[in-house]
Every structure is written in structure tokens, then in C-alpha cells.
Write a structure and sequence with these properties.
This protein is an alpha+beta fold. It is built from two helices and seven strands. It comes from Streptomyces jeddahensis.
Length: 97
């Protein structure tokens, strides 16, 4: 099914087509007792479905926060980061040495 909303139109900073796609996925996955979003709820307690997942943690405390994003490839029998040669990983490795 293709998104039908107008291109370039946003709602709360999200494109209408993106919201349509997410809404469609939420409904479709809910029918199977799953969620297309990883979260702490019961609907996320299942094996991830194969595909490309954007893992985007948000960490905050009082007025300070950070956000980063990694892409995880999930296959039928494996999962791996799309790019494991990242600057912050190099910094962590260097700090551990």
C-alpha cells in the first residue's frame, strides 16, 4: 500500500506520508500482537521482525539530554549493526585501553 498524503506537508514536524506509514504499521502489527516500535510494553516482547531497524535511544536527566541513532539489520537468524566503524565506538575503545 502506498502513502497517499501530500508530499512536503508536515504535522508536528513529521511528514503526513510518514505518519500514514507508521499508522498503517501500528495497526497491522497490533493485529498480530506485536509492535513495530521497541519499547518497554508487552507488545514489544517478541523477536524483532526481519528488516532495517532504527535504534534511537533518548537519554535525559533534568535539563541535560542526548540522542543518538544506530541502524540495526535483523535477518531471520542474525542481527548486526549496519555500520560498526563509528567515531563514538572508537572513542569508547580508546578510553577502555
Amino acid at each position: 500500500m502506498k502513502a497517499r498524503g501530500p508530499a512536503g506537508v508536515t504535522v508536528f514536524g513529521f511528514g503526513v506520508r510518514t505518519l500514514q506509514t507508521l499508522g498503517r504499521e501500528l495497526i497491522s502489527e497490533r493485529l498480530h500482537g506485536r509492535s513495530p516500535l521497541w519499547a518497554g510494553g508487552r507488545s514489544s516482547r517478541h523477536a524483532p521482525t526481519p528488516g532495517l531497524w532504527a535504534v534511537e535511544p533518548h537519554v535525559g536527566f533534568h535539563d541535560v539530554g542526548l540522542k543518538f541513532e544506530e541502524l540495526l539489520v535483523v535477518t531471520e537468524d542474525d542481527a548486526y549493526w549496519l555500520d560498526d566503524d563509528l567515531p563514538h565506538v572508537h572513542r569508547w575503545t580508546k578510553d577502555e585501553a
